[in-house]
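Appendix B. Raw example, untouched.
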Amino acid sequence: MLIYILNLVLILALAWPLCIHKPTPKKKLCYLAVTFGALFLLAALRQGIGNDYDTYIEIYQRIGATPVSQLWAMPEEKGYVLLCKLLSLISMDTVFLYAVMALLCLVPVAWFIYRYSPNVWLSTWLYVTLTFFYGTMNFVRQNLAVAILLLGFPLLRRRKIPAALCYAGVILLACTFHKSAVIMLPILLVCYIPLKKWVLGTYAGLALALYVTSGYIIDFITDYIYTQYKGKIYLELGFGFHFLIVPALILLLALCTQKKVTERYPDGGLMVNMMLYSFLIWLFITKHFVLERFSLYVYIFVLLAVPMACETFAPDNAMMEKYQSLREELRQARSLGGKSPKLKSLSRQFGAMKETVALQQVYYWCVVGAVLVATFCYQVFGMYDGTNGFHGVFPYHSFVGFLERLP
């Protein structure tokens, strides 16, 4: 467990020198290179952890042994089959497999954070503590699909019909790695609708109706369509309602800051919508935990939504420009000497502005602190939930001696 805690310490320790104190694009890039480099090493050097660790090795070996002419007949998604076949031509080593998969899963996320997050270090923290990173060591195909969707994000954010159609093509490409990515097609149809009261009411009504009748819908599907899934436990049981706490808090934060977020960020409204859809999916997971595999594609946008919401509590650019302007005027007035009425007026204005900025910063750090504490508690819960924690990656095991010896 210690290696995971040290990883969180690294994320926080580098935040101040590289992201908070006089940030620059190069310093942010360096931050992501170091933190995601550490995540890559954790994922690539692991051994035997992840619920599907052995399953993916078996699939890789089976694909490697299958002639190219017979690949189409394999049951796995064809994009993933083709990728594994290409990799198998290079090496059949499982360390190589998981190293490449980690690279393909992590690099697009790092790029996405660097390009679009208003708070790089907080997004990185959320990626780990909300267990997205740990999912890359279990849900490999789903995370490859997520990587494709994130790389296509420039199309999604354009809000133009041609771009949306192209993003639909991106979704279909993601489906060649995991079919559950298809959930993004209906979301694409509604994600640009502003969340007005009547829209929220409509979503609430539909969600309530589907939640009440979902058991009957599942029965109909398994009776007449997918009969082989009849009676499967993952269709009939759900997670506890405590799994809904974090998505609910995130949605509450997004809704409370919706006005400022949409005014400050071009993608703000889209992110608020994504948090609503994510909450609704998690609501249904409390009845049918098979739906968890669909949540990842929407929930991943929390990496932007929460930092955007938090940044609305910080002094905005206009306030900081006014603060800097008053400070410069006061400095120049003092350099002239004397105690003119203008100097006294500037001193009062600057003092009031300084107090406003300081108070705003206190609000901001209180909100950020609350996010850090809440998400850290969620990670701790995930570390000890069940036998091996979330995704079966706790405690950490590695084929590297000194990593394996860590408590």
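End of appendix B.
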